[in-house]
Amino acid sequence: MQVNASNYQPNACLTMQSRVQGKSDSAVFTVDNSGTASKDASKDIWAELGSKYNVRHATFDELCEIAHKLYSAGQISFGDMAIMTFDWKRAADDLRKGHPDVVADLNLVPADSKGRRDWIAEFDARAKSAFSQGNNFGYIHNQRLADILRRINGEKL
After folding, report:
1. Cβ neighbours of residue 95 under 8 Å, at least 6 residues apart?
2. How deeply is 148 buried, as exposed, middle or buried, from its count of CB atoms within 10 A (0-12, 13-18, 19+)?
3. Whole-Å CA distances, 90 to 11, 95, 151
4. What's the CA gap between 100 and 93, in Å, rounded?
5. Cα(41)–Cα(49) distance, rounded to whole angstroms?
6. What are the backbone dihedrals phi and psi of residue 117, each rounded to the nearest 5 degrees, phi first?
7. What is the largest CA-CA distance in the chain?
8. Distance between alpha carbon 57 and the CA centroid of its chain, in Å?
9. Which of 11, 26, 127, 151 is 20 to 30 A from 88, comparing alpha carbons?
10. How crowded is residue 117: how many other Cβ atoms within 10 Å of its Cβ?
11. Half-sphere CA count of 148, side-chain side, radius 13 A
């Protein structure tokens, strides 16, 4: 199929057919009332994480715990969790084995002596770097992760 501005035909067609619902169909759909409980739980997870962690001074392991808890609670996607838990330090260390002079630290914000760093600043720096390289997806994704961490920290978005 070829699609361009001069040769575009949508394949959607409108049907006016209506279906009569039989008595056996009425039991097919059920209503799930658990949505209200999950909304209350979602408020609790953000408050719980905010009281337990300081994302402006956290280790990578603490960031991983945060990501896993948010994912388990259904508050972030698997992709968000994957990016939050990708260990840039370990990746750089692995690359240095073959090219010790070429690979620098892949984290943009330095950590202190205990491995703690400002993760909001890290994801903001990654977003800025992606934007400067024309990587719109990377910019949006890293900005969203920084906003997630701001929400944990209780900062205004």
Report:
1. 102, 103
2. buried
3. 49, 9, 27
4. 9
5. 12
6. -145, 165
7. 73
8. 20
9. 151
10. 21
11. 24
Please report which residue ranges of 53-135 form alpha helices under DSSP H.
60-72, 78-84, 88-98, 119-132
For 33, the 3-state DSSP assignment is: coil
Half-sphere exposure for 100 (CA within 13 Å, toward CB): 1
0.85 exceeded by pTM:
no
Helix spans in the chain (H): 35-52, 60-72, 78-84, 88-98, 119-132, 136-153
- DSSP conformation class of 21: P
pLDDT digits (tens, 9 = 90+) for 106-154: 888 999 999 999 999 999 999 999 999 999 999 999 999 999 999 999 8
pLDDT band of 52, cuts 50, 70, 90: very high
135, HSE (Cβ side, Cα atoms, 13 Å): 11
In three-state secondary structure terms, 27 is: helix
